[in-house]
Every structure is written in structure tokens, then in C-alpha cells.
Amino acid sequence: MLSLIALAKLGYGWYAQKQVTPQKVVVGVPKVAQKTSSSTLRLSDFQFEYAVDFLKRPTLVVKYRLKNTGGESAWPQYVLDSNVVFAQQTNAGTTSVLAKTDVASGQLSFLMQNYQENADILLKAKESVTIVSTYRLESRNRPVSMMVGKDQRKTIKPWTLKQVKADE
Amino acid sequence: MSKRWQQALISTVLVAVLVVLGLYLAQDAMSAWVVRHNTVTVTKTTVKSAIHKQKPTYNFDQVKPLSLASLSQAAVNKHQVAAVGKMVIPELDLNLPIVLGVGNPQLAFAAGTLNPGQTMGKGNYALAGHHMANDEKVLFGPLVKSQVGMQVYISDMSKVYVYQIYERHYIKATAVSILNATENPELTLVTCDDDGTGRLAVQARLTATAKLSEVPKSLQALIEKNV
Description:
heterodimer, A: alpha+beta, 20% helix, B: Sortase, Chain: A, 5 helices, 8 strands, 27% strand
């Protein structure tokens, strides 16, 4: 019996890694550490796509716009990360806050690569910019919660997302 | 008689197979249990004597994933591990000793320093720690829940250094540039990815320094608590 259980455990682990089957999972609601966007910095126009990172792990590609109506420069990536949290359940059943990762080379178009570089360029006052940020997913099969402050603003279903294209 | 011996041999082999299979199925849970139930004491006295006690190794490439065997050995040799400080992230319920170097016995129950001679509150203070996928409450496991903006406190049991997280990023195992010296005081936390070929790096900036005796009592208690 133990042999069978051990084999089953091995087999299930292999199967789970290979399948792309959406799972209905309720994701815990982590509180965002920072307060919500200030009135001078506006995040908008969120769009999502799918890619794989340098370790061939599933990756969420987030494209968004940041507008700076205030008097000081802002670091776009920091603005996004301190106001928006992407959370997903792990294989162990806990909730993970997604962290940035680098997409494998050759996946993003030149335009998307430019948008990605914008994430680390200070945005001056009265300017707006399109930015791409990429986050490693725990799984392509489970939904991702997008949290702004305490509110869950959106549920993203990675298995429904289009794969990024190198030539757009 | 030979039939009896045969039966005894078969029974012994079966029991051995059952034990091995049982260990295989339970090893992850047992490893996490060993980590949770072994503490490294951190006090001002241990910190002062730690530097003379240890001959640390800083070769991160030689760090191996935790196994039940390595943990058991580390538990036996725990008295040889001396802590030089503490790291606490209250929002994540993370409370770890800091030890010198990244030897396998050191990282079994603590966070290890990645650069020789690094000093809290100065330059790039880099720490490494294991991440056990089956129990993300031990060692550096809670970092998967960390967020930009969270406070990280490290202490040498005399002073407390407060850092604020500004970036979380998966990096290649070979990306050693993250350990380079920085102009401003920073804290770099590096954990092991599930398959050992990638790492989660959490970077934070120093925002405040205070004496341990002057911080809020609740934080002081957390830092002085040996968990």
C-alpha cells in the first residue's frame, strides 16, 4: 500500500506539472503594505499577457500606464509595487505575493522591451508613460488576485491569457 | 529451518522497504519539524563570542538544498553555530538568528551572511536563507509573502537597523552582482528557489537606526526572543 501511495505521489506531482487545467481556488487577501495611489500618481489601463521567464516558469506580463500629475519625479516600478499586489496560491496551499522576474530572451517585441525599460526610468512631473512589468506565477492553472489597498480589484485567469509575441 | 530464515529475511526486507517509503513520504514534513524545533540562542554574549568561534564559509555555490539527513547532522552540531544578530519581519512572523557565512550547518536554522566583513547599517548587508516549499513559515519561507514597503529589522543585540523593502525579484543563481557593495546602506535577502537554480532576492533600504533599549517594547521582545 505504501509503495502504491509513494508511486501515486510521484506520478501526481509529474502530472500536475504537465497539465494546464484551471482550478477554482479562493485566494487569501493580503493587505497591501502601502496606502493606495496618491492623487498625483495615476495607474491605469492594465492589460495582461502570458510568457515564460529565464527558468521557463510561467510569467504574468503586466502592461499599464502611469501618469504623474505632481511636482516630483516617481520611480514607476516602485509606484506599482507599493500600490498594487498580485497574489496567487502556491502548491503548498499558502498565498504568495508575486515577485518580478526576467522574461526569457526573444519573447518580447522591441516595443514591449522599451516599455519594460520604462519601469526603471524616473517619471518626471506632468509626464505619463506606458510600462511593462513581469511577475513570476506560482502556476498557470490558478487565478491571480490583483489587490489595490485592501480591495481585490480584479481576478486574473492566466490560463486564458494570450502568449506575448516577439513581433507585434 | 531454511524456510524460517527465508521468511525472516523477507519480513526484514519488507519492513525496511516500508520504513524507506514512509520516510520518503514524510521527509518534507519531518524536515520542517526539525527546523522548527531547533533554536539558535542569540544574546549579546553569543554575538561577542561568535566572531572568534566560527570559521565561516562564504561560498554560496556550495549550499545544498535542505534534506532530512543534513538537518539531523546540523541539529547535532547546533552548539557550534554562533549567532551574530537577529532578523525580524513582524508582518511576516519571521524571526531568525543571523550567523556568519553560508555553510550548510549554519543555514539549517538561521540566515547567513554572504560577504565577509559586512557590517549592519553599512554598505550592502546581504543574507541568505533556505526556502522550504512544503513549509513556508520556516527560515526564509515567509519572504514569498513579503511586499514592497514592509519593514525589516536587523539587530546585533545592541542596535536595531530598520530597512524598508523596495524591490523583490527572481534572479539567476549566478547573478552575484546583487552582492556588490552599495553606496547607500542596503539589505539584500536571497533565498533559494524550489529547484535551486534561481533565487528570490528582496532588497531594502536603511531608513532608521536606534539602540535596542530605545525601540518599542514589543519589537524589543521580538528581537530578544529565541524562537
